[in-house]
Amino acid sequence: MTRLAQTAGLTETQRDIIGAVREFADRVVIPAAQELEHTDTYPAEIVKQMKDMGLFGLTIDPEYGGIGESLLTYALCVEELARGWMSVSGVINTHFIVAHMISAHGTPEQKAKYLPRLATGELTGAFSMSEPALGSDVAAITTRARRGESGEYVVNGQKMWLTNGGSSTLVAVLVKTDEGAEKAHNNLTTLLIEKPAGFGEVLPGLTIPGKLEKMGYKGIDTTEMIFDGFEIGADEVLGGTPGLGFRHMMDGVEVGRVNVAARACGIAQRAFELAVTYAKQRETFGKPIAEHQAIAFRIAEMGTKVEAAHLMMVNAARLKDSGERNDVAAGMAKYLASEFCSEVTQDSFRIHGGYGYSKEYEIERLMREAPFLLIGEGTSDIQKQIISKGLLRTYN
Ligand SMILES: Cc1cc2nc3c(=O)[nH]c(=O)nc-3n(C[C@H](O)[C@H](O)[C@H](O)COP(=O)(O)OP(=O)(O)OC[C@H]3O[C@@H](n4cnc5c(N)ncnc54)[C@H](O)[C@@H]3O)c2cc1C
Question: Which of 14, 49, 210, 349: disulfide with 10, CB 3.0–4.6 Å?
Answer without folding.
Answer: 14
